[in-house]
Structure formats: C-alpha cells, structure tokens
Amino acid sequence: MTRPAAPALPADLAAWLDAHAESLDTDAADAADVVPRLGRAGLFRVGVAPELGGAGGTTVDAIEAIAAVARHSLASAFVFWGQRTFIEYLLQSTNAGLRARWLPALLAGEHAGATGLSNAMKFLSAIEPLQMRAAPLDAAQTRFALDGALPWITNLRREGFVVAAAFDRHDGAPPAIFALPHDAPGVARSDDLDLIALRGSNTAALTLDGAELDAGWLIDADARAFLVRARPAFLGLQCGMSIGLARRALEAVEESSPAVRAALADDAAALRHELDALTARLYAGVTSGAFVAAPAAQFELRIGLAAVVDAAAHLDVQAAGGRGYLRSHASRATPNDTARRSREAAFVPIVTPSLVQLKSQLAQQRRSEAA
Ligand SMILES: Cc1cc2nc3c(=O)[nH]c(=O)nc-3n(C[C@H](O)[C@H](O)[C@H](O)COP(=O)(O)OP(=O)(O)OC[C@H]3O[C@@H](n4cnc5c(N)ncnc54)[C@H](O)[C@@H]3O)c2cc1C
C-alpha cells in the first residue's frame, strides 16, 4: 500500500504551530487556542463521513493529519489525538443521539473531546482494575451514579470538555463506557499536572464524586467489546504522533550542513526507509481491519515506530551539535527545536499502551503459543 500524501496544513496554522511549539511544550499560556485553531483548519473533520459533517476520507487520512501537526508541535498533535479519538468513539458508538448532540461542536473545534481510556486499555490487558464505578439508580437503568478518579487526561480544556471513561458495574453487568460532560455536578478537573513537557496540552486529573448521568450518555454498554473494536483506530491515530515527529527529526538532519548531512546520510536513509515501511504496514492493517483480530501485529508496529522516533531524535541531536545544547539559538534568538523534539520524543514510549505494557503482552502471547 502506498503512503497517502501528507496533507498540507493551512499556511497560517503551520506558522502558528511553529511560532508556539516551544511555549506549548513549556507552559500553558496558549493551551486554550489549540482546539479552536485545529478546528478552524478543518482537521477534526478528516476521515469523517460527509453525511456526519466530516470532510470524507479514511482513518488513515486522519492519522496523516495528526502526523502533519506532530511535525510542528507534539503537544498540539496530542491534543488533536485526544479530540479525534473521542470523535472516533462517537463514530463507532451505537448511541446515535449522543453522536448527533456532540459531533457538530467537536468537529468544529468549538468544544473539547478527551479520552480517559488508558485505564480501560490497561484493564483490557489485565494490568489494573477499572478506577471508575457506575451504579444504576433505578431498576430500568435509566440513571447512574458515577464515582472514581483518573490521574491523567489530556485535552481537559478549562473552557469545557466531554470525556470518555470506562466504568465498572457492581450489578453483574459488563463494564460500560460513558461520556462525561465537564459541568455535571460531581465532576471535577484538577489543576494542570506539573509535566516536564507538553504543558500546553490541558493534561489534568479527573474526579467523580456522585455524578449522576442518564443512559443517554452511554457510549457503549459493553466496554470490553467496544475497546477491542476501537483499539486499532485509538492506536493508529496515536501512531500519527510518532510518524510526524520522526519525519520532522529526519528533515532536520537533511537541513544540516553538507558535511554533517554526508556523515549521517546512511543512518538517516535507513531510518527513513524503516519509518516508511512501518507506516505502510500500519496503514494497510488499519484499512483492512486486520488489527481487530490480530492486535499483536499493531503492537509490533507501535513498538517499531517508537524505536524510529528515538533513533531519529538522537540523529537530530547529533546533527545540531553544540548548537542543539543551547537553550536558544543565540544568533537568531529562536527556541531550540532540537531540544524540544528530544523532550517530545521522551513521551512516545510512555503513553498507553506503553512500550513496557506492549512488550510484556507480546512476551505473554509468545509463551502461551509455545505452551
Ligand atoms: C503527558 C501525559 C498525558 C496523558 N494523557 C492521557 C490521556 O489523555 N488519557 C489517558 O487515559 N491517559 C493519559 N495518560 C496516561 C498514560 O497514557 C499512561 O497510562 C500512564 O502514563 C502510564 O501509567 P503509569 O506510568 O503511571 O503506569 P504504571 O502503572 O506506573 O506502570 C509503569 C509502566 O509499566 C507498565 N505496566 C504496569 N503493570 C504492568 C503489568 N502487569 N504488565 C505489563 N506492563 C505493566 C505500564 O503500562 C507502564 O508502562 C497521560 C500520561 C502523560 C504522561
């Protein structure tokens, strides 16, 4: 499968992302602007059917759009991932009413969508229990009381958000996934977490204390089945961050002086080749739906892409030399993009599903196949 052409971002958005990439990484001053700007550029509509208000195209086009933003700013690409992944949940939900209510504002970037499903993904892999609980308030299960806490969620915009989370049920029913609006009584967002990078991503903890919602907020009554179906898009969209960051780091090597470029040419070409091959396999699996039944194949690709990001960021550092070790490029008083990309790259292995988790799951699978 050939790689789709990376969409060109509107020039004003690309310029804004470049001008604010450093501040989006180091502080929260511009955090409120990211979703509306990406929305105005039409990026949340990519890969969404026209009859639902989208621009058409496929999930692969949406991955490429996230990659295009990640070339400029990983904090923005991560916000994009949160928003687009929540949109994806609505697209895959059987709750047409919830979709109709929320899709227009989310596609336009007028409201933020977030995914708090790392806990659920870890639950699906038997790593940790669900940290949220839902108790039905009536026999017909039309209303639920919701409690619990999630320590990390990105794109919890202070101006308002809706977030997906999975809930354990103590009445024997399977765990369910709800959408939670920021303004339901009992829903509380913490202050921004004190991150070492990506600080403009509106990342905070969420606490629910007796929040009450009706069944109209259910994304799916069977979290396990839903997550298995949604995981290829969740993970594929997330890989867009790795693809874009690795491409930009390799471009930075290309932009270095002829002598540096020549010295690093073989390493850069090998990484470029590996990146393109992994990307093509990812897109083929997302397109065919093969990762629903064979998640391990996608896990291998996520691990491979993370290794490429790591190596490309190292090459970027080598190409920049001592200049890359200064806080800013003194002659131009511009921020040090190489250092920012190194900080951004440090995030890639830890976002769920983390490399530790995936390697452990693949090892488990190999053991059970051997037994
Ligand atoms: C900046 C930032 C933004 C985030 N945004 C979001 C978000 O929007 N939504 C969201 O849901 N989450 C988000 N997270 C959470 C993130 O995706 C991970 O869940 C979290 O960083 C991993 O948790 P931990 O390191 O605390 O894992 P721990 O539970 O402390 O585990 C450490 C590592 O070991 C692995 N591990 C633990 N136990 C096992 C086991 N039994 N078998 C195999 N592997 C195991 C874990 O996967 C992890 O890699 C964010 C995190 C960060 C840093």
Question: Can you walk through the features of this model?
Answer:
The chain is an alpha+beta fold. It has three domains: 11-111, Acyl-CoA dehydrogenase/oxidase, N-terminal domain (Butyryl-Coa Dehydrogenase, subunit A, domain 1, Orthogonal Bundle), CATH 1.10.540; 115-222, Butyryl-CoA Dehydrogenase, subunit A, domain 2, CATH 2.40.110.10; 224-370, Butyryl-CoA Dehydrogenase, subunit A, domain 3, CATH 1.20.140.10. It is 52% helix and 16% strand. The chain is built from twelve helices and ten strands. It has helices spanning 11-26, 34-40, 59-70, 74-92, 96-108, 118-124, 223-254, 258-288, 290-293, 295-320, 337-347, 355-370, and strands at 112-115, 132-136, 143-153, 161-169, 176-181, 187-192, 204-214, 218-220, 328-329, 334-335. The strands form two sheets. Strands 1, 2, 3, 4, 5, 6, 7 and 8 form an eight-stranded mixed beta sheet that branches. The protein has a two-stranded antiparallel sheet with strand order 9-10. Strand 4 and strand 5 (176-181) form a beta hairpin. The two termini are 35 Å apart. The model has no long low-confidence stretch (mean pLDDT 94). Flavin-adenine dinucleotide binds at residues 82, 114-118, 127, 152-154, 195, 198, 203, 350-352, 354, 356-357, 360.
